[in-house]
Amino acid sequence: MCLSGIRGTYQGLTATVLKQGSNQAIRFFVMTSLRNWYKGDNPNKSINPVITGAFGAIAGAASVFGNTPLDVIKTRMQLRL
Hints:
The protein is mainly α. The longest helix has 31 residues, at 49-79. The protein is 78% helix and 0% strand. The chain has one domain. The chain has helices at residues 5-9, 13-39, 49-79.
């Protein structure tokens, strides 16, 4: 029997909030770290858009790897009968 109503709508909400929060935290941390590494001692150094895109792709991949365990928990909570 599937859950319905308000309870069914919010099944797994806590895991979803944790997953999304950690996803953004990982992404921002990696992106900022890569930008700071690239700029080195010159905070005014400009970054080519292609390099920014590459840093974004790396940050996105890191967030996927970091969030897979939470995503599995979230999905299992939402599928619970």
